[in-house]
Design goal:
It contains 7 helices and 5 strands, in the order H-E-E-H-H-H-H-H-H-E-E-E. It is mainly α. The protein has a single domain (30-192), classed as Triger factor/SurA peptide-binding fold, CATH 1.10.4030. A 3-stranded antiparallel beta sheet has the order 2-1-3. A two-stranded antiparallel ribbon has the order 4-5. A hairpin with a 4-residue loop joins strand 4 (183-185) and strand 5 (190-192). Helix 2 packs across helix 3, helix 3 (72-99) crosses helix 6 and helix 4 packs across helix 6 (135-158). The longest helix has 28 residues, at 72-99. It is globular, with a radius of gyration of 20 Å.
């Protein structure tokens, strides 16, 4: 190998190493794979923080002790529920894409979300106060998955199909890999390993 090739090889390894470090540092590595959909650590963490913030605010409103949410057991359950919801969202989106074109999905979802935002002018303030999310984050983490679910439920209702039965079967037949040591896929849901 010539000096020039050795230098290029070394530079390529360095660039790859820095890119890998940045990806890992920013949480851009898989926590779970649902069929072919990757759920990253950063997605789980951001949704976990939003869920925890919401539950802490709800505890304050209902005069409960928000410190109870700081226990390892509570945090583990919130993390479990967060990943379970993300897996469900991935299954819904996958099924929706088989029934509706991508462009149509986006158009219908945007219409639903814009109608919701028009009817509820204080969503931005509420999203920040309740979830600690900006409006854009709230849309991507809460409103868009909910719109996809409503679209699929509507399509299934028109086809006289049972959404609940479909979801149960989709979970049973899904290929789900979980890369978190304290969580596992039971074939129907995420559970905390004993």
């Amino acid at each position: 190998m010539t000096y020039k090739k050795s230098l290029l090889f070394f530079a390529a390894i360095m660039v790859f190493g820095v890119a890998a470090y940045m990806a890992l540092h920013n949480g851009q590595y898989p926590i779970s794979i649902v069929n072919s959909h990757i759920i990253t650590a950063s997605t789980v963490e951001k949704n976990f923080v939003a869920s925890l913030t919401y539950l802490q605010n709800a505890a304050l409103v209902y005069r409960s002790n928000p410190a109870l949410l700081e226990t390892a057991a509570a945090r583990g359950e919130i993390k479990r529920a967060t990943l379970d919801k993300l897996i469900t969202d991935a299954l819904i989106l996958s099924e929706l894409k088989t029934r509706v074109s991508g462009e149509e999905i986006d158009t219908i979802a945007d219409t639903k979300i814009n109608q919701f935002l028009y009817e509820n002018s204080d969503v931005e303030r509420a999203a920040q106060a309740l979830y600690g999310l900006s409006l854009a984050e709230f849309k991507s983490r809460v409103l868009i998955p909910q719109a996809y679910r409503e679209i699929l439920e509507g399509r299934m209702f028109l086809a006289k199909e049972d959404f609940g039965a479909w979801l149960s079967e989709a979970k049973r037949s899904a290929r789900v890999l979980v890369f978190i040591s304290d969580l596992e896929w039971t074939g129907e849901q995420i559970s905390i390993k004993k």
